[in-house]
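Suppose you are handed a protein chain with no further information: no name, no annotation, nothing but its sequence. What can you learn? This example shows the usual starting point.
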Amino acid sequence: MTDHIIRDVESLEALYGEVSLGASLKEMPYLHPHYAELIKASPFAILATSGPGGLDASPRGDPPGFVEILDDKTLLLADRRGNNRIDSLRNVIADPRVALLFLVPGVGETLRVNGTAEISVAPELMQRLAVAGKEPRSVLVIHIDTVFFQCSRALVRSELWNPARQVERAALPSPGQTLAATSEARIDGEAYDRALPERLKTTLY
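A reasonable first move is to predict its three-dimensional structure. Written in structure tokens, the prediction is:
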């Protein structure tokens, strides 16, 4: 098996061939207006970070346009209430490099943003990104290095937006069942599942 491992860039590029013209030209060092439209339409993104403890990919979501465009080189991402692990934020403190992957329901193309981030608690930003009068815990100010869209092949192959492909929630272990198993029953899974719907409703922001 080890004889077939690719270990250098030259071998990798020989395997895949040249980058297409479109794939090269679509990458921009700023937020093109067409790319801005995708961000404004997106209710969901994945935030990728790295740090001494390893890598992290964190789901982020709110109503469409929840990642605000300050200008064509800067984005604002509110950090809402969560479990206080703050894995992404710990990473940003150690290594400011970040990446975002934006998804738009029903749209095959995704948008990728690479850049650097800093954590702000500036009152004007906290107030700007408040929802129903509730401010975020902090705001990520993301400085854009590159932006480009990803073609729709992955979403077409996965049929992610096909309603017929949706999985019934009951077909998979519940959060409570998973916590009971991973905590070796130190967490009461049934009680957790019973309380979860109301807890989500009251702690969303």
